[in-house]
Input
Amino acid sequence: MHPATTLNLMPFPAGLAAAGCHVMSCGSRYAKNDTALIMEKVVVDLGAYIRYAKEELGYKHVVLMGWSGGGSLTLFYQSQALNPTITRTPAGDPMDLTTAGLIPADLVVFIAAHIGRAKILSEWIDPSVLDENNPDKRDAELDIYNPENQNKPPYVAHWVDRFRAAQIERIHKITARVEKTLDTLKEKGGLELERPFITHRTMADPRHFDVTLEPNGRRVDWCYLGEPETVNVGPVGIARFSTLRAWLSQWSEKSNADGIACAAKVDTPLLLVQNEADDATPPSHTQKIFEASASPDKTMHVIDGATHYYKDQPEKLSEAVTHVVKWVREKGLIE
Output
């Protein structure tokens, strides 16, 4: 499952099905629209699929696979299925996962995935924005799309450090505003329980223009959605439209769906597959999950030259599928 989309037409699930595997592509209640998405509710949705597979369809074993944005969700789910602790969302709303009856998966696969929606946003959001209500008011020295900006790739380390710190600062400012607004609405009472808002410019990562930063085989001046500057300002950018509660649950530093923290609570056998030319997931993310994982049985495999979507790379997709199937077979779950 991916928190905000369905994967049945994506290359990896289709590749598994073509290889003879039984595949259930799960969609949450927020499929195709993550504006109001609450990660804790997505966990409940995923749990319903696993219960259905085991209790209604009769499957004895379930392998939980998380691709792209589904990787951290997979770890979030498994951590709560093994040891449920969450009873409220980051906004303070009741959401009791301790009584949800979540069934743990038998194996977990983390493929071409980042460490969490909140974490990846904190590495992509444009730190040049100085006023959330006026995205044209920007810090020119942090605007990587400003042709007059003297900071050019390869970027110097102290500028990158400043850039990264400003990204975190912007996230924290948005979170503070969101929490203040929620408190105001609660104190006021009445029927206004939520409020939507726009987060402008959310695709500005120096790694897109400087391949010496976390080098891999990715295309320079490009991201998984296309031309980075267009994505940065366009309507399809991540976290562009959100409600207050959704921001706290999926995009803020308060999110419970932190892949690293969740991996440290999961001792289930784990396979991590990294696409070496991935133009969405930074290579460090797979390594961080591997290092954080509490599983005594964990393996990481790199698909050399593979991009995020395996576009025009049937041989790379085949290699990834073959390796996953081989690993599951070695664990005794398929013949």
Summary: The two ends are 24 Å apart (CA to CA). The first helix runs from residue 11 to 18.
